[in-house]
Amino acid sequence: MVIQEDMVQLNSQRIKYELRRLKWQPYVSAILVIINVIVFLICSMPGGEVLYQKGIESTMGVLYYKEYGRILWSMFLHSDIHHLFNNMIILFFLGSMIEREIGHIQYASLYILSGIGGNVLSLVSKVINSDYAGSLGASGAVFGLDGVLLAMVLFSRGELRNVTPARVVIMIVLSLYSGFTGSNIDNAAHVGGLITGFLLGSILCIFQGRKRERIS
Questions:
Q1: What is the pLDDT of residues 183-197, one digit of tens each?
Q2: Rounded CA gap, 40 and 177, in Å?
Q3: Cα–Cα distance between 103 and 26 in angstroms, integer?
Q4: pLDDT of 38-94, one tens digit each?
Q5: pLDDT of residue 183
Q6: Is the dihedral of CA 82, 190, 113, 159 positive or negative?
């Protein structure tokens, strides 16, 4: 009887361990990558160009025709395979690290809101400069992850021991420099995503820090 009870307890502990381990797998990052890849494949098929026509973020589409969904849909569109690959590599590896630290729901929310923030600043910049070109891509949201990471190393009290503020700042500066020295790049979306991610990430880190203090 005692042996059976020990076995039940041991199995229960194993199940709890497996559930905890599965809980912190980067599901959202993987799903986001899969969605972006599927959308790109659909766009590459005959008739798929309609997704570009309906989803690209543009001043005329959003402000004149009031197609506000473009601010969101454009985050899942990419111009070519290189554009897709570059964004997805950063999204998966950087996103996975952040997702494990802050959780699935918070991570998904910060990613989407960063992308929206980037596209909103992109629209503002286009209006100011009378620019009617369309924009697409996950870069604004990806830069938002850079901002979230910076907030985490600044406000999470050293929980990311192998990541320092200096390293993150250097990474951000190099990424911004690459964008500003390149051509046909929506740098306003990058900056907007970065700022949004940093601000929202800071709020989240400060809130979680105070919550831990109350518990302790």
A1: 889 999 999 999 999
A2: 27
A3: 9
A4: 999 999 999 999 999 999 999 999 999 999 999 999 999 999 999 999 999 999 999
A5: 86
A6: positive
Helix 139-155 / helix 104-128 crossing angle, nearest 10 deg: 120
Cα distance between residue 197 and residue 189, in whole Å: 12
What interhelical angle do 81-102 and 104-128 show, nearest 10? Answer: 130
User: Is 74 an annotated catalytic residue?
Assistant: no
Active-site entry in 125, 139, 178, 216: 139
> What is the CA angle 84-143-49, rounded to 5?
30
Distance CA(93)–CA(91), nearest Å, equals: 6
- State the helix-helix crossing angle for 139-155 and 81-102, rounded to 10 degrees: 30
Instruction: Write the DSSP symbol of residue 67.
Output: -
Tokens of residue 204, six digits = 């989240």
| Residue of 82, 190, 202, 216 marked catalytic | 190
**Cα distances (Å, whole numbers) of residue 197 to 29, 63, 144:** 16, 24, 4
Q: Residue holding tokens 């105070």?
A: 210
- 139 given a catalytic annotation: yes
At 9 the three-state DSSP class reads: helix
pLDDT at 199 (0 to 100): 97
pTM score, whole prediction:
0.88
Mean pLDDT of the region 103-118:
97
